[in-house]
Design goal:
Radius of gyration: 17 Å
Oligomer: single chain
CATH class of the largest domain: Alpha Beta
Helix content: 40-55%
Distance between the termini: 10 Å
Low-confidence stretches: none
Number of strands: 7
Shape: globular
Strand content: 5-15%
Largest sheet: 5 strands, parallel
Structural class: alpha/beta
CATH superfamily of the largest domain: P-loop containing nucleotide triphosphate hydrolases
Number of domains: 2
Order of helices and strands: EHEHHEEHHEEHHHEH
CATH topology of the largest domain: Rossmann fold
Mean pLDDT: 93
């Protein structure tokens, strides 16, 4: 089984591309969705997060705004949170890989792929990209987003140009929805042909 990573900076359209890949029948592991489950109501990470960051969890799970405020801009606290979250996500990912081990290829949706060095063990990386002006427009349209917060997020992410340089495959979402979907279909056909699916 070949394992590919799907990544892209904030506002690049990665979630839309992931949904298109799923509709094409590709097994896709969503690291963010796993985090939401682990931190949601009754999530297994709540006790550890509450112990390290008191007052950031409740009956509805993690209060993302409170937890974000506690770790944003503080590298030591961010690393402490990652030490809680990353091992649990890795266990979820390994369960996914076992479940689909008979498939020729799978895709792991990993937002901070390059930032965490996760690309080293993959068979290839798919980068979702778009023009900077479109990225900015998408992100600033999000509730509660500000230009300053957007800049801080970008500072924590590998630049888009660097991601594109290191990509094995790219999907450009700076075009129409139909054109993006056509790119996704071509990618799935390419990966399937490569692995003899």
């Amino acid at each position: 089984m070949d394992i590919y990573g799907l990544t892209g900076s904030i506002g690049m359209g990665k979630s839309a591309v992931a949904a298109m890949l799923r509709r094409q029948g590709v097994p896709l592991f969503d690291a963010d969705a796993a985090v939401h489950r682990l931190q949601g109501p009754g999530g297994m990470l709540l006790p550890a997060i509450e112990a390290r960051f008191p007052g950031t969890t409740g009956s509805a799970g993690v209060d993302r705004q409170k937890l974000g405020a506690a770790v944003f801009g503080n590298p030591q606290d961010r690393r402490a949170l990652e030490a809680i979250v990353h091992p649990a996500v890795k266990r979820e990912r390994n369960r996914f890989l076992r479940r689909y081990r008979s498939r020729r290829f799978v895709i792991l949706d990993i937002p901070l792929l390059f930032e965490t060095g996760g690309q080293a063990w993959l068979d290839g990386v798919i980068v979702v990209t778009a023009p900077a002006w479109k990225q900015r427009k998408r992100v600033l349209a999000r509730p509660g987003m500000t230009a300053a917060k957007f800049r801080q997020i970008l500072d924590l992410q590998t630049p888009d140009a660097e991601k594109r340089r290191r990509a094995d495959h790219m999907i450009d979402t700076g075009t129409t929805f139909d054109a993006t979907r056509a790119q996704v279909r071509r990618l799935v056909a390419c990966l399937g042909a490569k692995t003899g699916r």
